[in-house]
Each structure stands twice: as structure tokens, then as C-alpha cells.
Structure prediction request, 345 residues.
Amino acid sequence: MSKKHWPLWEIFVRSKNGLEHRHFGSLHAADAEMALENARDVYTRRNEGVSIWVVESKNITASNPEHNGELFEPAQDKVYRHPTFYDLPDEVKHM
Amino acid sequence: MKENLYNYILGIADNSLILGQRMGELCGHGPSLETDIACTNISLDLFGQVRSYFQYAAKIAGDGRNEDDIAMLRKEREYKNVLLVEQPNTNFAYSIGRQFLFDVYHLAFLAEQQKSADLTLSAIANKCIKEVSYHERFSSDWVRRLGDGTEESNKKMQEAINDLWAYTDELFHQTEADKAMVVEGLGVDVTKLKDEFYKSVSDLLEEANLQTPESKWFQKGGKEGIHTEHLGFLLSDLQYMQRTYPNMEW
Prediction:
């Protein structure tokens, strides 16, 4: 029997109000509605979430790992881009 | 012992217990990983509900039996579940059809049970109704998908509904215990849920491109302990561990 697979969906779950949605994983579903229900059952059954986003995986454009050299390595030796060269007054907390 | 209340609780609890066992049978056998988890989640919800009922029943029985004894150690004739929930997982359409028909009933039942003068029963209903709302959403969604899907899925869903239809009327039968509990204001009058049930179900079937069966021939007996041949096999699975290793725990 030839098996047609449902498309793949990426699942993002917000674990608490105020936090951002985080990528939790992926699953198969026939459409967005089913993807939401499946995500509810697969990823939030232990009280992990208060909100779910689903995005069909094909709609995500990803950077190519082969281009990591030109994309990311140039940033490695530019420590001055981190805001660590200031003297912070003691009154400023949580920086 | 309040015999009527005890029997009334078993009537509710056994439906969830037996349906929970049926859905649990799909663990590792669901049509896809995602639906497999969904079906076993439903099973676990039902078992959770069952614990509250049997704990309460054990308290009322007051004869030293605990929740497990009542759930696991009765004989076939002592189970009071409706025939619908013991029907086998012939294929996914049957599992979904059985779940859907029961969920529509279950949801309406719990909405009424919330109003019970018995505070334990109303509290349990209050807790269960959210879970069951999701079950109904899941199962009706699948009835729609299969009914309104391919020619083959429509055919299978229609067959399942046709075959299970004979077990729907029993949901609205009253046992002696049911009648007594209605009089006391503790129990739900299931006869009053019937019209709304058939209306909701046929509305959804129509939406799902399925025919509402016209057959007026119905099966009954489960509530009185007279079951179809399927229950014995189910119980031998369900009860195996407790019967083989009495009082085992893990």
C-alpha cells in the first residue's frame, strides 16, 4: 500500500502568559486545524502551554548551513558589538 | 448502604471505564502517531474520571472494597455500562463513531449532572466537562473529516454510524436506580436528553455528508448487566493483572 503522508507542521508553544512562543517540535497533520489539535495532544498534555501556534514547515525559509561561514563567522571577532564597554552606575540593576 | 446511589454511580463510571479501556487498546495502534496519542489521552481522561466515581462508590458501599476492587473485580453481569461503549475498534471509523456518539451524550449528561444536589457528583461533573468538551470536539471533527473526505472514508464512516446506531437509544433508558435518583434530585433524567441528542447528532452527520440512519430497531441491556459478546473479552484484558496478582500495585 502506498502511503501518503500528511504535511509537516512546526509547533510553537507559549508556556506562560508574558513569555514568547517557543519552538517545541514538529508533527504531521492534514491541515492547520488538525495540527492545532495534534499539537495540543502531543505537546501540552503535561500542562506545558497556554497558547499554540502552528506553521506548515514548508513556509519556513531556513538559512543554509553551508553558508554559515559568510553569515555568522564574521561576527565572532567583533566583541565590541556587545555593550560591555560601558561603566554602569551601581544604581542600574539587572543589566 | 445507599443502594440506588451506588448503582447510579456505577452506571456512570462503567461507561467511562469501558470506553477508556477501548480507547486505550489503540495505544501503539493508532492510525498515526498524533491520533494515537490523542486517543490514549482520551482514554486517560476517562480513567481519571472513573477514579473519582469509584472512590465515591467505595465510600458509599462502605464494605471494605476500594476503588480498584470495584473497578476490576466485578463479574460481567455486574457491569452497568451501555452496550455502545463496549463495541470493538473494528476500524478507526468505528472508534471515532463510538466516541462521537458517546461524547455528544456525555457532554449533555454532565451539563445536567453539574446541577445535582449531590455535591460530590456535581463537583466531578464540573471537573469532567472540560475534558469531555475536548473529546467531543476531537471526535466530531474526525467524523466530519472522514464523512466529508474520500469516497472510501465516507463509506467506512457511514458503515460505522449505521452499525453503532442500534446502541444509541439505550443511552436514554432509565434503570430503577436512575429513576430513584431523579426523584431525589441527585440524578440526571436521561430521557430528557434524547431529543437534543438526536438533533445534534443528525446535524453533524449532515454537515459531514453522512446519512442519519432511519432504523428504529435498537439494542438494550447493558444498563441491566446484559452485554454483547464483546464485553467478556474486554474484561479479561482489563482484569488480568488484578486477578492474576491480587492486590498488586506499582
